[in-house]
Structures are given as C-alpha cells and as structure tokens.
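Entry:
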Amino acid sequence: MRTIPAGVRFQDVDAAGIVFFARVFDLFHDAFVASLREGGVRLEEVLRAGEWGAPLVHAEADYARPLAFGDALEIEVALAAVGDTSITVRYVARRGADACARGLTKHVFIDRATRRPRAVPAEVVAALGGISA
C-alpha cells in the first residue's frame, strides 16, 4: 500500500461547496498514477511506447464524509486483486483520521496494437507493492 498526498481543488467542488461525486475518481486516478510512478512505472512513458494500456472496466465509490475546497487528503492505494489480465485497486481518501471516501477500480490490461487482453505486467504489480490485505 502507498499513501499519496492530495488536496481538494476549487474545480472539484459543486455549488453546494463539496466535492462533486465524480471528482473522487479523479483523486483516485491521480493517486493511482502517482503510486505507479513511485514504484518505478511512469505511465507517460508506457503510453508513448504503445505496448500496453489498462482501461477501466469497473469503478465504484462509497462516500462517508463530505470533502470541501482546500481539504488536505491522503489517498491510500493498494492492490486488492491480481488476475491473469486484470488488477483491482482499492482506494481510501482520508482527511486526517477520517476515511471520507473508499473506492475500487478494475483495470484490464490490453496489447495496444491488437486491443486484446494481455497478461498483467509484472512491473505494475511490483510498483503497486503486491497484494495488500
């Protein structure tokens, strides 16, 4: 598991002054990319090379506490499952000790040339720290 610092930006909040529900997925995705980077996988280089991609096939989130502009967060990122061609990533957005949002994303790895499923790259599993309990 990695913990990635984040913050709620002005453009993340709605007219009620709290994070618009879909923007939580932006926070999760940014933390996913940062976690890969910290583990040595630079997504921009992967995309330039054009060998593989990891599109989402499922995403879910639960909201426990409202988040507001300026809130400092930590996003926990951990592998929940690794399959032959997919991974499921678990997220927890925390403001201090409060778990404000939890989520899961499932990514299926594809060969970008054929757009067919391919094996999960070992470097991705290693970068995300392996399966976390």
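Residues 21 and 117 are 30 Å apart (CA to CA).
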